[in-house]
Automatic annotation (TrEMBL):
Species the sequence originates in: Alteromonas genovensis
Catalysis performed (reactions): L-alanine = D-alanine
Keyword annotations of the record: Isomerase, Pyridoxal phosphate
The EC number(s) this enzyme carries: 5.1.1.1
Protein's recorded name: Alanine racemase
Domain Alanine racemase C-terminal: 234-358
Any GO BP annotation: D-alanine biosynthetic process
Length: 360
C-alpha cells in the first residue's frame, strides 16, 4: 500500500467559504484569489469548484493563468503582478487575462503593444503598503496620460498592510488615502482582501479579492470577529503511523535528541516530514490528532517523518490516521507553534503530497 500522506481538499468548504465571504459584501463582486496553486490547495481543483460563482480569478503571475487555461478554465483572470516582460502584454490578451499595471515601465510595454493585441488593464495604487503601485499623488496623472489603455474593465486597486487586525487604524488611513485620490476618477475600485472584507466592511467596493478566507484560514486577529464568521478548513493534511516503539525513561528521540522521555513512553513514527511541507520549526508539543485525541510532536521534524508521543492513547497501531491540521487541529494553532502564519503552511505543502478533492 502506498504512503498515506495526503492533503484532503474539502470542495464544500471552499464553496461555502467563498459564498459566506462574498455574501457579506452585498454591493460588491468578489473574486477568488487562486495564486500559488490556490494557496496549496491546487489551483485547478479550486478553479473547478468556484468557476460558476467567482466571476474572475486572481493569480500572481501569467504562468499561473496559462496553466488554468490549459486545464480548460475560461473565467477571466486578473494577474496581480501584471507583466514581468513586455511580451506578456500580448500573451495576456491571448489568454483573456487582465494585467494589473503597477509601474511606468509596464505602461510603456502596453503602449508599445499593438492595439489589437492589448489586454484589459487594472491600475495599482500604493496607498501605504509601499510594495507595488503608483503613488496616490501620481494616480490622477497616470490615468490622464494613459486614457488609450483604459477599458470598461479598468479598475483601480490597492492592497492593505494590516487588514487582519481590526485594532490597527492603518487600514482606515489607507482607505482614506486611496479614496481621496480616486474619487474624482470615476473608475471602479478594489480594496478588500478577505481579512479586510471581514474586519473593514467599509473597504468593500466594486471588487473584493478573497484569498485566505476561502481556504478557511484565520482572517481576524480578534477572536470575536473570526468566530462570528464561520469559515471551514478547506484542507486536512493527514498521514499515518508507520512504526511504533516503547522507550524507557530518559531516552532521547530524533535528530539531536531534543526531547527526552520523562517516563516510559510509546512513540509513534508518522510518515510526513519537512520535505512534505510540515514545518521543521514545529517544537515539541505541537498538536496532532490520532484516534480522536490530541497528541504531541516530540523530537525534531525529519525530512520524511515526525515522531509523536502516544503514551496516553490506547490501541495505537501502524496504519492509524494522524491529522496534522484540518478539521480537528486548526492550521492557525500549528502555524503559531511554528512561528509562522496559515498562508505559509498552506502554500508549502509540497508536490509530494497528493491533493485529494472530496465533495461532501
Ligand atoms: C494583491 C492581493 N490581493 C488579494 C490578496 C488576497 O489576500 P487574502 O489571502 O489575505 O485574502 C492577495 C494575497 O496576498 C494579494 O497579494
Amino acid at each position: 500500500m502506498s504512503r498515506q500522506t495526503q492533503a484532503i481538499i474539502h470542495a464544500d468548504a471552499v464553496l461555502q467559504n467563498f459564498r459566506t465571504l462574498s455574501s457579506m459584501a452585498k454591493h460588491s463582486q468578489s473574486m477568488a484569489v487562486i495564486k500559488a496553486d490556490a494557496y496549496g490547495h491546487g489551483a485547478i481543483n479550486v478553479a473547478r469548484i468556484l468557476q460558476h460563482v467567482s466571476p474572475r480569478f486572481a493569480v500572481a503571475i501569467i504562468e499561473e493563468a496559462v496553466a488554468l487555461r490549459e486545464a480548460g478554465i475560461t473565467v477571466p483572470i486578473v494577474v496581480l503582478e501584471g507583466a514581468h516582460q513586455a511580451k506578456e502584454c500580448a500573451m495576456a490578451a491571448q489568454y483573456d487575462c487582465i494585467l494589473v499595471m503597477h509601474s511606468y515601465e509596464q505602461l510603456q510595454w502596453m503602449q508599445k503593444c499593438e492595439v489589437s493585441k492589448r489586454p484589459h488593464i487594472w491600475l495599482k495604487v500604493d496607498s501605504g503598503m509601499h510594495r507595488l503601485g503608483f503613488s496616490t499623488d501620481d494616480i490622477e496623472e497616470v490615468v490622464a496620460q494613459n486614457q488609450s489603455l483604459l477599458t470598461n474593465e479598468t479598475t483601480l486597486v490597492t492592497h492593505f498592510a494590516s487588514a487582519d487586525n481590526p485594532d490597527n487604524d492603518f487600514t482606515a488611513t489607507q482607505i482614506a488615502a486611496f479614496e481621496t485620490k480616486v474619487a474624482s476618477l470615476s473608475l471602479p475600485v478594489s480594496l478588500a482582501n478577505s481579512p479586510a472584507s471581514v474586519n473593514w466592511p467599509q473597504s468593500q467596493a466594486q471588487w473584493n479579492r478573497l484569498g485566505l478566507g476561502v481556504y478557511g484560514g484565520q482572517v481576524s486577529t480578534q477572536s470575536i470577529i473570526s468566530s462570528a464568521v464561520q469559515l471551514f478548513p478547506a484542507m486536512t493534511l493527514r498521514s499515518s503511523v508507520i512504526a511504533l516503539r516503547d522507550i524507557a525513561e530518559g531516552e532521547g528521540v530524533g535528530y539531536g535528541q531534543t526531547w527526552r522521555a520523562q517516563k516510559p513512553s510509546k512513540i509513534a513514527t508518522v510518515g510526513i516530514g519537512y520535505a512534505d511541507g510540515y514545518p521543521r520549526h514545529c517544537p515539541n508539543g505541537t498538536p496532532v490528532m490520532i484516534r480522536g485525541q490530541r497528541a504531541s510532536l516530540v523530537g525534531r521534524v525529519s525530512m520524511d517523518m515526525i515522531t509523536i508521543d502516544v503514551t496516553h492513547i490506547n490501541n495505537v497501531t501502524t496504519g492509524d490516521t494522524v491529522e496534522l491540521w484540518g478539521e480537528n487541529i486548526s492550521i492557525s494553532e500549528v502555524a503559531s507553534c511554528a512561528g509562522t502564519i496559515d498562508y505559509e503552511l498552506m502554500t508549502r505543502v509540497s508536490s509530494r503530497v497528493p491533493r485529494i478533492v472530496r465533495y461532501a
